[in-house]
Amino acid sequence: MFLGIDVGTFETKGVLVDPAGAVLGTARRRHDIDTPAPGRVEQDPEGVWWRDLTQIARELMQHPRAHELAGVAVSAIGPCVVAADVDLRPLRSAILYGVDTRASAQIDALTRRLGEDEILRRSGNRLTSQSAGPKIAWLKDEEPEVWRAARWFLTSQSWLVAKLTGAVVIDHATAGYFHPLYDLARGSWDTSGCEDFVDERRLARIEWSDRVAGTVTPAAAAETGLPVGVPVVVGTTDSPAEAVGAGVVEAGDLMAMYGSSGYFIRVGDSPTVAEGLWAAPFVFAGTSVLAAGTSTAGTATRWVADALGIADESDDVTFSRLLDLAGRSEPGARGVLALPHLAGERTPFQDPLSRAAIVGLGLEHTRADIARAVLEGIGHSIAEAILTFRRAGQELSRVVAIGGATRNPYIVGTVSTVTGLTQEVADTAGAAYGDAFLAALGVGAVSARTAVHHWVRPRETIQPDATSREVLQRDHGSFVALYRDLAPWNHGRAA
Asked: Which of 160, 156, 201, 158 is nearest to 181 (CA)?
């Protein structure tokens, strides 16, 4: 048996899987994020991540076949920055991934210091809010007492794996987002020019995701209920684990993750740098990815449900109400257009200062039009990110869609119709399922990464809609123009 646990932005999920890929047990825990100030998004490693992991592990270890546990893998949101002391105690809440935009000044300072060309050469990326390096620099500048006390600057799953095994490791896929501290071509840390705020001894050892990091320690076993000595693989962040769990493991495959935010991974054979996309290693030796991301997706659906007064304690009820309301409008939302940049935007604009807008409203419009416009706006946001791959000359041989928002036809339908791409919706248990496969691969229970195709089956296929193609593709051009028209105003307001 193989245990996978994934800590997401709003939920932690665990699965117990047999060698044929059958899910024999699941468990989940809801949690929230902290937003202590505008642009700052945090979570408590002990109070959220470790609490969830221990509770889920204990629940799943009640399964009758749990005694057959042969491997464990953990994934989590990232890249995060966890400042921890020598005993792995977090010194403050973790600073989250690209949705946290606090380090803008450090991004600018590091870009001036190192130069854009050198950063791009070294990391394969420009510095953005998705870069972990500037957030470490922010700690030195803004919280020097925490920075001085930190023995380690880790990410989410590397801290969890260290808690389980005592081994301080990070996977290549996540280390690749610690720009400008990772050399993409060499696959190793490079802190040159950044020695004033970090050195390699305070960063985790880098390994591939499917390698065994260590085994469950007696202390971790006492808290989690996991058997002492069970192998734990290095793991990765939630998005690459989602890709593995969806069967996206071969060159040309694209994973489209419709979660709280949008995230997109195209698998390749060797490191490639492309304008507007993030270059990083993938989870297996000899593989790489180009990636993109949006700042909102599912979070914007929550927001609009709250704003329209249809939210319910039950997510299923809220979802049904929102779909019913949007269905009373029509494609194009009767001329209403929404820019869903409630937390800035990532690909392709990389603009933390962008803000949401709903335009085109008249007395004739209703709540249904607003609901439809926001859902289609999320689709336009995701479509624009996916189109960035095409503009960079990256062939998309197969698109696999995953995540909760794949159940929303107004979002996924807009994406397929705007891009012209067919999407396979994977029948998968998500990142935790990918973790379980990594654990099985790491301990030799499966022989190759392509064995995941025996685990994963498509649930449905989303085709472009010819009847709404003209209006949605016209609206997409207006969507991009709306961002560009509003950008000067948003930047001036923030100055």
From this structure: 201
* CATH match of 2-239 with 1.10.3720.10: no
Q: What is the pLDDT of residue 33?
A: 95
pLDDT at 494 over 80: no
Q: What percent of the chain has pLDDT over 90?
A: 91
Superfamily of domain 248-427+465-495: ATPase, nucleotide binding domain (3.30.420.40)
Domain boundaries, the chain: 2-239, 248-427+465-495
Q: Give residues with Cβ within 8 angstroms of 170, minimum separation 6.
A: 154, 155, 158, 203, 204, 205, 206, 207, 234
pLDDT, tens digit (0-9, with 9 covering 90-100), for 457-485: 888 999 999 999 999 999 999 999 999 99
What's this model's pTM, rounded to 2 decimal places? 0.85
291 close to 265: Cβ distance less than 8 angstroms: yes
Query: One fold for both 2-239 and 248-427+465-495?
Result: yes
Helix (H, G, I), strand (E, B) or coil at 485: helix
Number of helices and strands (H, E) in the chain?
A: 15, 25
